[in-house]
Design a protein that fits this description.
Number of helices: 8
Number of domains: 2
Radius of gyration: 21 Å
Helix content: 40-55%
Strand order of the largest sheet: 4-3-5-6
CATH architecture of the largest domain: 3-Layer(aba) Sandwich
Distance between the termini: 60 Å
Strand content: 5-15%
Amino acid sequence: MFEGPVQDLIEAMRRLPGIGAKSAQRLAFHLLRAPEEEVRALAEAILAAKERIAICGTCFNVSEGPQCAYCRDQRRDGTILCVVEEPADIIAVERTQEFRGRYHVLGGHISPMDGIGPEDLRIKELLGRISGGEVKEIILATNPTVEGEATAIYLAGLVKPLGVRVTRIASGLPVGGDLEYADEVTLGRALEGRREV
């Protein structure tokens, strides 16, 4: 254990998601060796993000104003909603440059083991957006995990009776992957999601 501020910094780093004890220590010592202006810039960026970033009132993405850039963009197709778990998932979808619709961020996934039920997600808000009549399709882009699948199935059950088309992103083998290393579930999904060539 280190003294005072060094240990405090390590403990603060450990509270970040995905950072274990060794990584926290490595990050803390990197910051201690870094030039003061670099550390100050990092601290100011963190504070500015915390002070200026809010949640979009429409889709629940992060935003610097009442609406995010995707909701403000009139060129985007308002008849298609891509439903994701977290704001970071929007960036992943946008990198494909294939989707030109709008988004809805649930704020997580259904996980009874963690005490997260449907009432803890932004499902009521999603249904409210659908009931407006403009939305014709929702794309369920939840993660391909047990919780993500359960969330997608739950949402499909709520949305299909409303007369809105419900689709699910395909999952399967990554480009450049080897069949021999694929697990049974991934390979099974790749076979189910096959398309004509």
